[in-house]
């Protein structure tokens, strides 16, 4: 067994609001997993030693809300096809890993490109985070995500459903393809041009059927839900996570705590639109985001500080919001009133628990994969430390950047 010991670092394991100083940890080079750790002088045996020069080490980031095939620039002058979506996905995955993201959950990719890439990966490896793919999301005709695609608009980004039978078929179709997550569009959204954020688009009955089908097949299921009633339906139906949650009510905060429902806010997506979106997108979308952004931050802060489980997601692929900038969400969570530790926990064990991979990811504990970042500054003191551009990124014990 070949082993590498990494020593002389300040280690944020991810389970407690503290650092282990003068820390060391040992990685099995074959499995890529941690096999030992401690502090002080390393007295064991290792085939290779790496001195981390008193820098800060933390788990790689897990992003629970991504759109891997999207282009975060709005001025492209060609139709979205499977080719362009695949090109974007491979580019975003590589750059995302360089930005410190080591595992992602997909929340909707046209042409099921994420599913196809994951199936190909064992024989045709590519650089990027581990993936929990979703493929096509599920919406209604005219709803959020109803977007014609292809050279001649012959495809749609989503399954468009009318009623529970359509919904059951859509979820089963995604399962057959290889999806591991189902994405529901429960309400209107910012970028859709015909609806408002409080439009309730999927019925409670449709979402209940979706949850039943997804959970019976060991898939996770999440809901884009911004308006109050759509959020309520999603929580009652039993989704694993509410995405965005602009207007989560006090009643649903308590219900989410009771049911263990996660909130994946994606604050950075709204922030980037407000700061950079004027004149770059439709006035309808820009004005919607500006109208709701303060309530967005307020409700997210209240929900998390009331005890709702928090995962880190960014809506990566939306305007000026690439996967490589995932670490910026940490800063926005703190701006919403979340503690540094709570934000970092969301990017690690919080997202790992939601994605059901916390036995191998999300913290730097013995038995888990050695996916870690090496930083110059202390992220527990200032989460902006994770935005360091030239940080070291390790995946399964192998330095990638």
TrEMBL record:
SUPFAM superfamilies per UniProt: Composite domain of metallo-dependent hydrolases, Metallo-dependent hydrolases
InterPro entries from the UniProt entry: Amidohydro-rel, Metal-dep_hydrolase_composite, Metal_Hydrolase, Metallo-dep_Hydrolase, OTAase-like
Molecular function per GO: hydrolase activity, acting on carbon-nitrogen (but not peptide) bonds
Pfam families: Amidohydro_1
Key word Hydrolase present: yes
Superkingdom of source: Bacteria
Name under which the protein is recorded: Amidohydrolase family protein
Source species of the chain: Lactobacillus ultunensis DSM 16047
């Amino acid at each position: 067994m070949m082993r590498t010991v990494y020593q002389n670092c300040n280690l944020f394991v991810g389970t407690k609001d503290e650092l282990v100083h003068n820390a060391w940890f040992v990685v099995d080079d074959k499995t890529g997993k941690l096999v030992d750790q401690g502090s002080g002088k390393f007295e064991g045996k290792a085939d290779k030693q790496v001195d981390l020069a008193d820098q800060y080490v933390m788990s790689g980031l897990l992003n629970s809300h991504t759109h891997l095939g999207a282009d975060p620039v709005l001025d492209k002058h060609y139709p979205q096809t499977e080719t362009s979506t695949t090109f974007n996905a491979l580019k975003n995955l590589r750059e995302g890993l360089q930005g410190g993201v080591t595992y992602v959950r997909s929340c909707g990719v046209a042409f099921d490109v994420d599913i196809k890439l994951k199936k190909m990966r064992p024989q045709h490896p590519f650089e990027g985070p581990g993936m929990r793919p979703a493929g096509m999301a599920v919406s209604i005709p005219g709803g959020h995500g109803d977007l014609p695609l292809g050279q001649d608009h012959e495809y749609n980004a989503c399954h468009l459903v009318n009623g529970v039978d359509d919904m059951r078929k859509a979820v089963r179709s995604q399962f057959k393809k290889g999806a591991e997550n189902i994405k529901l569009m429960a309400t209107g959204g910012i970028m859709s041009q015909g609806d408002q954020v409080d439009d309730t688009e999927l019925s409670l009955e449709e979402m209940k059927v979706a949850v039943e089908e997804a959970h019976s097949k060991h898939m996770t299921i999440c809901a884009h839900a911004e308006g109050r009633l759509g959020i309520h339906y999603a929580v009652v139906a039993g989704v694993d996570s509410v995405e965005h949650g602009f207007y989560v009510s006090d009643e649903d905060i308590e219900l989410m705590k009771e049911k263990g429902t996660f909130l994946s806010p994606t604050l950075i997506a709204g922030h980037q639109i407000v700061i950079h979106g004027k004149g770059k997108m439709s006035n309808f979308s820009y004005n919607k985001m500006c109208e709701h952004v303060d309530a967005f931050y307020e409700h997210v802060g209240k929900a998390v500080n009331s005890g709702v489980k928090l995962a880190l997601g960014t809506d990566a692929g939306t305007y000026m919001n690439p996967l490589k900038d995932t670490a910026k969400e940490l800063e926005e969570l703190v701006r919403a009133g979340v503690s540094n530790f709570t934000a970092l926990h969301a990017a690690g064990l919080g997202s790992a628990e939601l994605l059901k991979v916390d036995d191998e990811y999300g913290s730097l504990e013995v038995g888990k994969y050695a996916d870690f970042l090496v930083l110059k500054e202390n992220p527990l003191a200032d989460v902006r430390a994770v935005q360091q551009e030239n940080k070291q990124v390790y995946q399964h014990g192998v330095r990638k950047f």
